[in-house]
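Notes from the pairing session

We agreed to fold both candidates in a single pass and log them together. This is the raw record for the first candidate, unedited. Please don't reformat it; downstream parsing expects exactly this layout.

Candidate A
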Amino acid sequence: MKKLQLKIDKINAPVFRKFLKILDHPGRNIINSPVAIVEHSGIKPGSSVIEIGCGSGYFTKEISKQVGPDGSIISIDIHPEAIASTTQKIYENALVNTTALTANAEDTKLPDSCFDMALIYGVLPTPFISTEQLLNEMHRILKNKGKIAFWCGPFKLNIASIEKNNIFKLVQTENSVYIFEKV
């Protein structure tokens, strides 16, 4: 955590705010439609979802629509500017089923077995996060048969790296969204 926090601290707030604006650029919708990506993630109405690395909150509104009024979302990011941006979108769009929290995806401090699904959009691959630690944490916080949906943008997901410890297995791939189930 300290190593990761040191890297995050080097990214100062004004620079990170510029990065968040890039994530929200309207042209992004042409190639990264949040509607299409979220629709292909297998989110069920009424489910409890954790959004890992929420960034600007680009996907948060669509996730909220998918889980519906009986579902819930916790959107996490390690950078406070990301949480501020996502929180602003939560209030602007009256997403009453959504909460944004500053948290480390490798050690969320959330209760065991509390989510039906984890959404990891555009977070991997990255040098900031240990895939193994992330997967162990997702395994801990997901309910039995819980799922993770990965979307990696232009990058290809290394499926073997997700399945190597036999705690998740690939169950579906659709439109660049990879869905794994907790084993």
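Candidate B (folded immediately after A)
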Amino acid sequence: MLRRAFECVAAVIALGAGLGCSNLDRFTTGAGEAYCGAVIIGAPFRAGLSPRVQMRLTLDAGAIDGPSAPGTISTFEAADVGQPEERTFAESPLRPIPALAHDALSHLDFGDGRERSAIFAVSPADEAAEAMLAVVSLRTDDTVEVRILRAGLAPSATAPTPATRRQVFGLFSLTRQPNRCGF
């Protein structure tokens, strides 16, 4: 009788744990894997970025709430007439913002279809450029969204804003690939 009661309690605990927790480890990229994708082309979803920018994300989803960088991002924009190729981010670590863990933003919820979202600081490859924020959302369909944003300087009527200080916003939709995204 006692054994039957124990089995019932164990089953309820196991069921509750399965319903109450989500396993984010499935988002972790393995050796040679990455999440790859392009910036959303629509102008309302993009500022300060070319529509040709692509992103690569490597991720250790188990470290998303930890004190160390859970991954890196890299971007690539192919050369165009009169423009060299550009790599705004080059294996740039997703840096946790410790104080954020104590704020409601650490529980950011963008709604249905997203299991977990987190905000990180990320530094461009150009050390003179201002850092940006990366909002990483792990989606229920096993894809990842990354939003990159920087407030930038206010526009000036007297001088152009340097590229390293301009406003930036981009939404990237990424899928897991068995390669390094071709760049």
